């Protein structure tokens, strides 16, 4: 039986470079080292394309798109510095997490070309340019723009499919985050019109040999399962898709908090092979 060491393929959001996180990036790297992670991926959010997509928390802090682009450049430089500084203690993969809204995919490609990250996590946090994961109010607005929750799910998974095809990210982040504020998500995910889109997206992940993020963030918020929910995890395992934990950490306190549980869940689902490391796919 393979020993599955704690790793994270999606996380490392720090208060230094993310308004809704805590602690410095170096403090987070040190925490991974203290907990004996052999390797970790750091994937800060990409900056917004324009001021129209600056989050309310950032606006409140007086930040604009220009500043956030400079901060992202500082993040990439700091992460490369830490990658070198701690090379004898841990293997750090330097990456970033995408957005998916008007203009963001082309901008994400430009960021790849400019900064040459080790890999990219392809994520969707907006539907119809509304940040559905920011609050219940935003989630409800996004659903209303789609004619209801079923329409929201359908639009999200279509948008995710478009993002994967456009960016071909090495890792697909929190595939079912669209369930975030929906207490009935277990039934909704399995509705044929929605489930067919999920399976279509999983097939693309498999065909392109990408990795799925087993995202632990919901466990830190009191949920009883990560992203991926049980039926999606089961289907992905049946399809032979590589799945790797991501703590989606937003501070030192998140690191390692649910890793043992995640590893046991993945073992129970039938995964028992060494974690696959991220390598950026050339287009």
From TrEMBL:
<dbReference type="Pfam" id="PF02811">
    <property type="entry name" value="PHP"/>
</dbReference>
<dbReference type="GO" id="GO:0004401">
    <property type="term" value="F:histidinol-phosphatase activity"/>
</dbReference>
<keyword id="KW-0368">Histidine biosynthesis</keyword>
<comment type="pathway">
    <text>Amino-acid biosynthesis; L-histidine biosynthesis; L-histidine from 5-phospho-alpha-D-ribose 1-diphosphate: step 8/9.</text>
</comment>
<dbReference type="GO" id="GO:0000105">
    <property type="term" value="P:L-histidine biosynthetic process"/>
</dbReference>
<keyword id="KW-0378">Hydrolase</keyword>
<protein>
    <recommendedName>
        <fullName>Histidinol-phosphatase</fullName>
        <ecNumber>3.1.3.15</ecNumber>
    </recommendedName>
</protein>
<dbReference type="InterPro" id="IPR004013">
    <property type="entry name" value="PHP_dom"/>
</dbReference>
<dbReference type="GO" id="GO:0005737">
    <property type="term" value="C:cytoplasm"/>
</dbReference>
<dbReference type="InterPro" id="IPR010140">
    <property type="entry name" value="Histidinol_P_phosphatase_HisJ"/>
</dbReference>
<comment type="similarity">
    <text>Belongs to the PHP hydrolase family. HisK subfamily.</text>
</comment>
<feature type="domain" description="PHP">
    <location>
        <begin position="13"/>
        <end position="215"/>
    </location>
</feature>
<keyword id="KW-0028">Amino-acid biosynthesis</keyword>
<dbReference type="InterPro" id="IPR016195">
    <property type="entry name" value="Pol/histidinol_Pase-like"/>
</dbReference>
